[in-house]
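Example 3.2
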Amino acid sequence: MAKKEKSEYIIQAVSHALDLLEQFHDDMDELGVTELSKRLKLHKNNVFRLLATLESRGYIEQNKATEGYRLGLKSLALGQTFIKQMGLLRNAQPVIQHLKDACGETSYVATFKDNQVFYLDVVETDQPVRVVSRVGSGLPAHCTAAGKVHLASLSEEEIDSVFAQTGMAPFTEKTMTELAALKKDLAQVAEQGFALDDEELDLGVRCIAVPIRDYTRRIVGAISVSGPTMRMSDERFSEEIIPLIQKAGQELSARLGYNS
């Protein structure tokens, strides 16, 4: 008897419920039945039943003032459980805290999923001028230091595949939008062991990142430091921040079982 593909076991109602939950992303914090019906291409009655089910379990709640719906506390609890279970994040927190204390700049730990960079945790600088935290948001790989760290570990065919799907949108005048130029940059990243974002995502912001490897020697994330250009000079990068972030990357990799 032939083994069934996993896709044959999918329960449509569960799939629709997950599609509904995924509509609440970025700044989309509240949606009504009509809007959800349009987005999901489902009848309003079906959407209402999905909402009622999710609301009964605490994953969705209704704003009584607007009658719109938003994510419930159970969604937050589930996300927090996921975060706590990630060995990367558990081990990263003290490392990025120490890195921030040493260099005085905002320090992140990030991972790469679905061709995007996701910042998992941050320790913010105490400086009055700082970079806005983007923890939880998906960011493009081609113009972020953490993204370049990951891309530099891929084959040329894999890089081509990534950008065939995502393209290379410009975010500032310094964003690389030509794949040949990016590949040249990635070759340098692979050689030197760190990546730079020189105002490529946000004007006035520079960022540096190094890879995190686990016991299989695979890159599982990145540690990055970012700050305003007025504090992030080339001289400071080379004399202070690069040695500190490389040490942090080595420490976190060692915590995950990597042996160089």
